[in-house]
Design goal:
The complex is a heterodimer.
Chain A lengths: L20 H21 L3 H19 L7 H30 L9 H16 L2 H12 L3 H26 L3 H8 L4 H35 L7 H10 L3 H31 L6 H4 L1
Helix pairs in contact in A: 2-10, 3-6, 3-8, 3-9, 3-10, 4-6, 5-6, 6-8, 7-8, 8-10, 9-10
Chain B lengths: L13 H17 L12 H17 L8 H33 L7 H16 L2 H12 L3 H26 L3 H8 L4 H35 L8 H9 L3 H29 L1
The chains are: A mainly alpha, B mainly alpha.
Chain lengths: ~280, ~270
């Protein structure tokens, strides 16, 4: 019987950590910018330290005993906000689709695409509130103004999503339609639309969800809706009513998100196969 | 005998389409009845106000550059608020994202609790936070920064935790197999893996922050919005135009910068 040879210990050197000077440098720059901004803000330290106790006190004022007596009014105003969101989404999506399709590569020529994309980028950069401020001289301080501001603001993002979706869609069918002699309209209808439609519908619903949040904000400049009511009662410092309004906003927003999210999943993933055994 | 091909029957999709169209139409009708709280589609008002309003909107095309020197300081404040808000939110998002994702927090109770709280935080619109915070702590940049932090945590944690959920968990499994505890696995596997996503979302939230902090001033939470509120009160649309152009340029610059950095991250 031969003895086993003693195992030789082989030491593998641990690889050297890669030195990533660029990353460190980036961190350094970010830190300097952050600290610089922080000091530049000149925050009130006394208030900052008192913040936790203040927050607890106000949260108590708002939510310990919410005043439910104005709930009917709150629900009416909520529906007004939701209406602004819906009308805004609808109008916005229609225009975004009309403008977004020619902005997609393969659908429109270069001289159409570039100006359109710039136009979308410009709208994206302007907050909806400012759009509302601009157009309210013509449309007045009405919910209609809110809906129009949401519609115009929506074009910025939704049209971008539209052309990105169309560009991401498989091009085979579009080529086939072109090969069969289809014109631009036919290419869009039979080549691009069927593959892009589910995604576009899902994004439209998502736009509605975003609008529900934004429409509450638009109320702050006075176009009506739950935001209007909230500003009013906050200025009166009627905290128990403010608490009730916030609860309404949260519940309604989450409910709409949940329903819309389910519909979106249904659109994107198709129906659940329930009676599989019957088919097989 | 000639072979004939029978076309397959068209799938019957019209009942479903009809149902969807009916639902959309019903919703549209319900949202346009003023008595219910809906939006009154008042095109007549546009026609009536046109001459008056169009003149003011026309002022937008003749920007008044004299206001420009007054905008530097508030604009810097807006950018500072955006940076500080993003920074604080990014730091807070690291533990919260790990808490809210399944692979990094197997405990269902705490995970659902964190997610629920964040859903609630996300359901409140940004300017609503700002309005209430201004009433609480007073006019200034502090309520603005807090608003941005709350808003950013909401979106960054949601997007990052979803990314962790759907990420390839091979490294984390290896960590489990080697007998690592959950905090150890999170530190050496989950965190390094999610850095790029997190950094990308943080940059995205910085973009959004610049847009939001530009209007926070409308409710008294600091930044260039304060100036917007002032000039809009006097219907100085020529000055408003200058401010909007400035915001536009800053937002587009930040977007370009952030897109460049995000490309480098990949």
């Amino acid at each position: 019987m031969t003895a086993l040879a003693p195992r030789t210990e082989r030491q593998l050197p641990i690889p050297v950590r890669p030195r990533r000077i660029a990353v460190r440098l980036a961190w350094g720059v970010a830190a300097v910018i952050f600290i610089g901004s922080f000091w530049g803000l000149d925050l009130d330290w006394a208030k900052l330290w008192g913040l936790p106790s203040d927050a607890a006190r106000y949260l108590g004022l708002m939510f310990s005993d919410p005043d439910w007596s104005k709930l009917p009014e709150a629900l009416f105003q909520t529906w007004r906000s939701v209406s602004m969101a819906w009308v805004g989404a609808l109008v916005g999506v229609v225009f975004s689709t009309l403008l977004g399709i020619p902005a997609a590569e393969g659908a429109g020529p270069m001289w159409v695409r570039l100006p359109l994309r710039w136009f979308f980028a410009v709208i994206r950069a302007i907050p909806e509130v400012i759009i509302a401020i601009i157009i309210l001289t013509v449309t007045g301080l009405t919910p209609f103004t809110g809906a129009l501001a949401l519609a115009i603001g929506g074009i910025g993002t939704h049209a971008k999503w539209t052309y990105e979706t169309i560009e991401a869609a498989p091009t085979g069918t579009a080529e086939a339609v072109t090969a069969a002699g289809g014109n631009l309209l036919q290419v869009v209808r039979w080549g691009l639309w069927p593959s892009a439609a589910p995604e576009l519908m899902s994004l439209s619903l998502y736009r509605f969800e975003i609008n529900v949040r934004t429409s509450a904000i638009l109320g702050l400049i006075g176009v009506g809706g739950i935001g209007d009511m909230l500003t009013g009662y906050t200025q009166y410092r009627d905290w128990s009513t403010v608490g009730m309004l916030i609860i309404v906003v949260i519940v309604v927003t989450m409910a709409i998100d949940a329903v819309s999210g389910r519909i979106r999943r249904r659109i994107m993933e198709g129906a659940k196969v329930r009676d599989l055994d019957r088919i097989v | 005998m000639a072979e004939t091909l029978v076309l397959p029957p068209k799938p019957r999709s019209w009942p479903r389409i009809a149902m969807v169209v009916a639902a959309l139409a019903a919703m549209t009708v319900l949202t346009t009845i003023p008595a219910l709280g809906g939006v009154e589609l008042d095109f007549g008002a546009i026609a009536r106000n046109w001459s008056n309003g169009a003149e003011r909107i026309g002022m937008l095309f003749t920007p008044d550059w004299s206001i420009l020197p007054r905008t530097w300081q508030p604009m810097l404040e807006t950018l500072s608020m955006a940076v500080v808000g993003t920074g604080i939110a990014a730091a807070a998002s690291i533990p919260l994202s790990l808490w809210a994702a399944r692979p990094t927090n197997p405990n269902g109770v705490t995970r659902r609790a964190v997610r629920f709280v964040l859903n609630v935080v996300r359901a409140v619109p940004d300017l609503v936070y700002a309005t209430i915070l201004v009433a609480m702590v007073g006019v200034g940049t502090l309520p603005g920064v807090i608003t941005l932090v709350l808003f950013d945590i909401g979106i960054v944690v949601k997007l990052v935790s979803e990314a962790i959920d759907s990420a390839d968990s091979a490294y984390m499994e290896a960590g489990h197999a080697a007998g690592g505890t959950q905090p150890q696995i999170n530190k050496v596997a989950a965190l390094p893996q999610s850095w790029p996503v997190m950094a990308s979302q943080v940059l995205y939230s910085l973009e959004l922050n610049v847009r939001i902090s530009a209007i926070l001033g409308l409710v008294g939470a600091g930044g260039i919005g304060r100036l917007i509120d002032e000039v809009r009160g006097f219907y100085r649309y020529d000055a408003l135009s200058t401010i909007i152009l400035e915001i536009l340029i800053v937002v587009l610059l930040i977007e370009v910068l952030s897109n460049y950095l995000r490309k480098r991250l990949r």
